[in-house]
Design brief:
265 residues; alpha+beta; Immunoglobulin-like; C8orf32 fold; five-stranded antiparallel β-sheet; globular
């Protein structure tokens, strides 16, 4: 499937920014699941200082805000040809060892509620079936609804709150899988929706490593494994490490953000 993506993020500040630096993970990497036909990253109100491949294999750019500027706009645009591998990314490895992906992070630390959910896996002789059951149980316990969690909400907090978005679903799933001793990671990217071109945000799902298949994806929010409608952008131990944009700035300016995203054939 050929997908066209246009993703613009605009940050505005209520007073000039002395210094600001953004870490951008908005360049897809080619694999057996996707071929990058063309892709461009443009910046208004700043410039790309350097580009590199991080330890997870993510193509990363560092973008500085123009000194004394009051806005910066970052647009990623391009065309991807995707393949349906039924969620199986396979036995593809980078510099990050599997044992590190079994360890919790601040936002994927399992508390009592997630520990109870992890027992879902014990009820199934087939591990893959157990993981799908875990995904279904998480979505039932935490229906998709925006406005109840934030970027720094932990998996345990999201589960306790009973409502969340794809970031929360992925991190709960990751925390539970790691409790079972499975390497798990967070994936950020895009999803072409069947009835909607314009979207409010990018998408996220989880991957778990199985000895038999390698990395397998689970989109808890939609109750499926990723197919040809998905575009992978970045991976990490949690949402922060795979975030499309993260950064810092000097000064006391308040920030507002507007996101515009279109994913279509």
């Amino acid at each position: 499937m050929q997908l066209h993506v246009t993703h613009t993020t605009r940050y505005a500040y209520d007073e000039p920014v002395i210094y600001g630096l953004q870490k951008i993970r908005l360049r897809p990497v080619g694999s057996h699941m996707q071929s990058v036909v063309d892709w461009n990253l443009t910046v208004t109100g700043g410039k790309i200082e350097c580009s590199y491949c991080d330890h997870h294999g993510n193509q990363t750019d560092l973008v500085s805000i123009t000194p004394e500027g009051d806005a910066v706009e970052i647009t990623a645009r391009g065309t991807i040809i995707t393949e349906n591998t039924h969620g199986v990314f396979g036995k593809i490895y980078g510099r990050v060892p599997l044992y590190l992906l079994r360890m919790p992070t601040l936002t994927t630390e399992a508390g009592p509620k997630i520990k109870a959910f992890a027992r879902t896996l014990d009820k199934h002789d087939d591990l893959l079936a157990g993981l799908h059951a875990l995904s279904e149980a998480i979505l039932k316990a935490v229906p998709y609804e925006s406005g109840h969690t934030a970027a720094d909400t932990t998996a345990e907090q999201a589960l306790a709150g009973g409502k969340g978005v794809c970031q929360d679903h992925a991190q709960i799933f990751i925390a539970a899988a790691r409790l079972a001793g499975l390497p798990a990671r967070y994936v950020s990217g895009y999803l072409m929706m069947d009835d909607q071109v314009d979207q409010d945000a990018s998408h996220a799902w989880a991957e778990v490593h199985l000895d038999t298949l390698g990395w397998v994806g689970f989109d808890v929010s939609n109750g499926i494994s990723p197919d040809e409608r998905y575009v992978r952008i970045a991976v990490g131990r949690d949402a922060k490490e795979a975030s499309p944009i993260e950064g810092m700035r000097m000064g006391s300016a308040d920030e507002s953000m507007i996101v515009s995203l279109q994913v279509q054939q």
